[in-house]
Amino acid sequence: MTSLLDLTAAQPTRSLAPEEILIVQGEGGGDLFVLLSGELSVTRDGVEIATLSQPGTLVGEMSVLLGTRNTATVRARRESKLKAIRDAAKVLESEPKLAMRVGAVVAGRLDATSALLVELSRQGADKAVGPGLFSRIVTALALSAGEASVERRDLFGGGPGN
Question: How far apart are the first and last CA of the chain?
């Protein structure tokens, strides 16, 4: 399968200075980015959930595919360069190879998350965090796009301050 770097080669490049914010949680989404170089920090509800430094890493896909506001804040830890795909939903509709590659990236992340949940279950984490929360997470991962969605507040009690 063709890489995201190859599929986005014609897209404009965006440069970020250290500490510059690329995406702000809660703001309107709609753009995709592919990391060329540098390092990014991903923070959701004030908790750092990832550090990204691998060239070809996709950023911004959740808001594009879900049609929602940005679900996390992404900030450059050091000077970074990315390919920028503006109005990504429209681009994905017209470029099936890119759409399939984005889908494969998202499916791969879901597969890795599911495998991690299995491993945590085997280690007894479901007992440590409570079987109710663990069950809700597994159920949320099993929902198809056409089914009623599980809200974050359903899983984690409403977000910050609750």
Answer: 43
Tell me: the pLDDT tens digits for 41-87? 999 999 998 899 999 999 999 999 999 999 999 999 999 999 999 99
Burial (CB count within 10 angstroms: exposed 0-12, middle 13-18, buried 19+), residue 99:
middle
Cβ-count burial of 31 within 10 angstroms (0-12 exposed, 13-18 middle, 19+ buried)? buried
CA–CA dist 18, 97 (Å, integer)? 32
| CA separation, residue 90 to residues 39, 98, 154 (Å) | 27, 11, 31
Which tokens go with 161?
A: 């301050």
* Residue 35 in tokens: 């990391």
Residue in the block written with tokens 């939903």: 89
The radius of gyration of the chain's CA atoms, rounded to the nearest angstrom, is 17
The reported pTM is 0.78
Q: Which residues contact 20 (CB under 8 A, 6 or more apart)?
A: 75, 76
